[in-house]
Amino acid sequence: MTNRTVHAPAPTRRSRPIELVAALLAAAVVAAACGEQPDDLPVERPPIVDVEPEPEPEPDDDAVTDDDPDALATDDEAEPRAPEPDLTVALTLTEVATLDSPTAGAVGPDGVLHLADRAGTVHPLTEDGAGEAVVDLSAETTTESERGLLGLAFAADGTELYLSSTDPNGASTITAVAIVDGRIRPDDRRTLFRLSQPYANHNGGDLHIGPDDLLYLGLGDGGSAGDPLDAGQDLSTPLGALLRIDPRGGDPYAVPSSNPFVDEDDAAPEIFAYGLRNPWRFSFDPVTDELWIADVGQDSREEINRIAFEEAAGANFGWNRMEGTLPFEGEEPDDHVPPVYEYETRGPQGCAVTGGVVYRGRAIPELTGVYLYADYCNGTVRGLIVDADGEGVEQRELGIDGGQVVAFATDADGEVYVLDLGGAVQRIDAA
């Protein structure tokens, strides 16, 4: 792949007049020059590799099946059936830690939830709060505008920690930190990915390991306002897309041969799905594998997208032809995947959606299967219920306010934490 430094034309539309320090808004801020710009990685086209799926477990001949009415489970340890979701359940927030500006969380191979602080440090969550930093990238990032340490994920086999940040020049960067014998080795790290950003906003930056054990990165459209680069519908740039890579399949990484655009000469092979404005937060349902993407809107709509994992490869979420279900510029693409829920930008629900997670913990069974989310400008945590056909069934405020909510995190038990950019890390508990 050739060098991906993008040169942007002058903005054509005005951003919303709200100043935010997280990567949640579309403030039209041009990136200031900050020294010599390093090359993007990779400079050459990355190798395309076959990724073997995990083998299906052998069937157990003695296992109970749904079509065997005489083999009903009576074991006291059988998994209890979850009740129907109830968005009226009484909840509370319990503060468990504080950081300067928490931005993301992920569970390590030791089962401990690790928290990212925007300035560049990573901390384990202990019984006494946030522990000492186990990684410090503060000299390698900047918190100007919507930048900083924005995401983290642990390799499925626990051998690497991946950090998504913006470097001092504003480039979106993934750093891989080695984990040896279960211990993070902060000095043993490599730059896995770097992509120059034309503006200081719409960095995206969320990072997750998918159901296929591959690494997913969400990138915004490059910034300014109105997508002046047309990045959302341009497959030649990784901007405005959800990327999927194999972080150890090549140098510095490889691209799975099953990515939808690897056979198109002019397309960035890393692209898994596209048509996104600023997918600040996305997640996978750990039970159904469904992909949820909350895309921050321009002037009219904040949108939440949900799609089955097997249907997600090549999905077009519409930006900038569409903003939610509303036309924005040009005609609606034939393959547009509309949101399952949207709300008015700068309306009563807020101004910049913060995507969350599907609750799969045990402490609050009434929330099982509910998508939890919030808004940076209105910290009220909300629940969304979507049926099997992708139709929104119910959406409701849950009676708890997380402050300047920039992310949700899930611990090893499936319990959910709300991250407030002002510093608080709070767990959602039953009242």
Question: Would you give an account of this structure?
Answer:
The chain has a domain of 246 residues: 6 Propeller (Neuraminidase), CATH 2.120.10.30. The chain starts with 47 loop residues before the first strand and ends with a strand. 1% of the residues lie in helices and 36% in strands. Strands 3, 4, 5, 6 and 7 form a 5-stranded antiparallel beta sheet that branches. Strands 2-29-28-27 form a 4-stranded antiparallel beta sheet, with no helix packed on it. It has a 4-stranded antiparallel beta sheet with strand order 8-9-10-11, with no helix packed on it. The N terminus is likely disordered. The chain contains 1 helix and 29 strands.
Task: List its salient traits.
disordered N terminus, mainly beta, 1 helix, four-stranded antiparallel beta sheet, globular, five-stranded antiparallel beta sheet, Neuraminidase, 431 residues
CATH superfamily of the domain at 101-285 and 293-353: TolB, C-terminal domain
Main sheet properties: 5 strands, antiparallel
Structural class, by secondary structure, is: mainly beta
Number of strands: 29
Using only C-alpha atoms, the radius of gyration works out to 21 Å
Which stretches of 5+ consecutive residues score pLDDT under 50? 1-35, 61-75
Note the beta-strand portion. 35-45%
Cα shape: globular
Overall mean pLDDT: 87
Question: What series of H and E elements makes up the topology?
Answer: EEEEEEEEEEEEEEEEEEEHEEEEEEEEEE
The helix content is under 10%
**CATH classification class of the domain at 101-285 and 293-353:** Mainly Beta
Distance between termini? 53 Å
CATH architecture of the domain at 101-285 and 293-353: 6 Propeller
Number of helices: 1
